[in-house]
Write a structure and sequence with these properties.
Helix content: 25-40%
Strand order of the largest sheet: 4-3-2-6-7-8-9
Order of helices and strands: HEEEEHEEEEEHH
Structural class: alpha+beta
Largest sheet: 7 strands, antiparallel
Oligomer: single chain
Radius of gyration: 28 Å
Amino acid sequence: MKKQKIQIFILCLCGILCVGGYLFFRAHDFSQDAEETEFTVTDFASDEVDALQVSGETNLNFVREDGTWTETSLGDTPVDQDSVTALVSRFSHITTTQSAPGDAGNLSEYGLTEPAYTITVSLSDKNTITLYVGKENDLLAKYYLKREGDPGVYLVSEGIVSGLDKTPESFAVEETKETLEETAQD
């Protein structure tokens, strides 16, 4: 009888531990344990930007005067305002939860000693923000990015880098047939 009481006690204790463990794991959100730090690389309003320069495969040099964007190499050729505004807005608020592993002082490891692109944003308050885009991390499909004056190296999505290889001419407004016909009639 004593042996039977001990076995029942052990079974009850195991049952209580199993139920307690189940309730603990069910109530505990393990995804919050590995809290990710969010890094803010840039944070400015797009309408504060007076100029945007991109150096790399091709060079882009946009200037905004009286609310209208122009590309300096195109002279008087009008540029698609929405395309330039979209490009500028890509750089206005860059945040990431991933910083580069290892020694951020070794910039060659990230392709930042000779960056693929250098992006310079001139703001209306006369401040300038310079970003350097390094090589792609093939494993994560993200690019290394460094902001001048910030010791960190960050991993950012491909969406920030896409389209930087466009030529100035690709931003030019295409004249439609209607516009050409109206000009011919006048």
